[in-house]
Amino acid sequence: MTVMPFFGEFAALFTAMLWSGSSMVFAAATARIGSLQVNISRLLMATTYLGIVILLFGLPVALSGRQIGNLAVSGIIGLALGDTFLFKAFKEMGARITMLIMSLAPAVTAALGYVFLGESLSTHAVLGMMITILGIAIVVVDRRAPNSGRSSWSVEGLAFGLLAAVGQGVGLIFAKMAFREGEINGFVATLVRILSSLVLLIPGLLASGRWVSPVLTFSRDRRALLLTAVGSILGPFLGISFSLIAISHTSVAVAATLMATVPILMLPLVRIFHHERLSWKSIAGAFVAVFGVALLFLR
Length: 299
Fold this sequence. Notes:
This protein is mainly alpha-helical. The protein contains 13 helices and no strands. The longest helix is centred in the N-terminal third of the chain and has 29 residues, at 65-93. The protein is globular and about 50 Å long. 49% of the residues are buried. Residues 145-149 have low confidence and may be disordered.
């Protein structure tokens, strides 16, 4: 099957666009019902969406044992553990510093891709990654979201942030291994990853005694239900699916870098919807990141 040039790169950028929208929607939902409820509910809703699409379009679901195993490990490490550490880092240090640490995720992914997948990068690609990450860091350091809570360094928060970055990278590596075993539909792969993460998350939540029935929660707050449903479509349903499509058509390092441009893509959204004034530093950082992205396409 002929694939358009840079299909993986475009899929990664589209993923970042989807995650930019879902971030804003989930932020509004979290303010109403809390991050724990949103995190579980978004995955349960995405499972429903994915199941409907797979059945409706008759997508091929035959996977080898190794593919299922790699996707399961990817889901557990990348979604269950990685996202849990990410939320803990948000709580400990605030969104701004946590996102700064997470900007290291592409570099971690590149190193893991080189060691475990044998993926090497051209000089152009390495330079493009470094410039893009620099632009992202400039924007993240400059932007201080209103009402973002804590925004200070801590050893525990730093550990959580680094574990989240590593979890994201390791999750992508195992997903790529599954795709190397044979052709997989991105939506089917996403369903396996999410179901695997729920196998760990739901028992853990029940054991913690913090489980609140989503039906009860959303019956009290219909607005939260709408926000979580929309965010689930943009994030775990379409976003994760296209992230897997991206890594199946380009190197995990390049895909991770392009998917990390969420803070850049959110700038026009916060300007339009929250009427935030953008500083010259944020604008400069955006231009730096765009230049880095251009280098990735020119490599």
